Amino acid sequence: MPRRAAAKPRIAFVAAPSAKAARAAAELAARYGDVPVERAEAIVALGGDGFMLRTLHAQLGRGLPVYGMKLGRVGFLMNRYAPDDLPARIAAAHPATLHPLEMNVRVNGGAEIRALAFNEISLLRQTNQAAHIEVSLNGEVKLDNLVCDGVLVSTPAGSTAYNLSAHGPILPLDANVLALTPISPFRPRRWRGALLPSGTQVDLRTLEPGHRPVSATADFHEVRDAVRVRVREAREHAITLLFDPEFSLAQRILDEQFEP
After folding, report:
1. Model confidence over 29-47: pLDDT tens digits?
2. Which of 104, 140, 201, 255 is deepest in the core (most CB within 10 A)?
3. What pTM, to 2 d.p., does this model score?
């Protein structure tokens, strides 16, 4: 009897709000079929890293792997765009499991706000005056007054983004550590950040919230007038990214350390 052709995977295509990404999504859907996310076996995201982050947030909890193809300006989390043999590429891709950070913010006035971040959680001064921030780890004060433009906590996947531009360390994907990195620190002058076990709870308290207001951001979710920010790795949440085997996320992070 003739062999049955392998069934095509059910793919949901999502595209960044650009004409280029929309055209690619239409062409790929015509070629491979397109199903609603609720019936998909994999999601293909077309755009740049910003759109990929939004896709990860939107699809968290569905249990579907996400395969990105670069059609934006920055594509560290994406594979190269190539329309041929897409089902085979998805089948051969290497998975990378990401756990987000959870941010719990108390704002001036008492309200509590929660958000997740796959790259980093950052605090930034809102005015022309430096922020004064108390830094505690697992309930113990480590810096009673960090004077700076801000401070961030980064995941390994996000360590090559804002964290790197703030002179923080690049973290291997399987290192089980987080980067705590100051942004333009003034005092203490010799403090340049720390590597933290991934289970560490980080508490950041604004010392003069009325006089020196600070905003808190989890990826693209910003909260103004933050008074206290609690950060932890949310191991109960996970999402899988798929990468072509010749350039896995772990390899990209390694190679980034040797970029000129």
Report:
1. 999 999 999 999 999 999 9
2. 104
3. 0.91
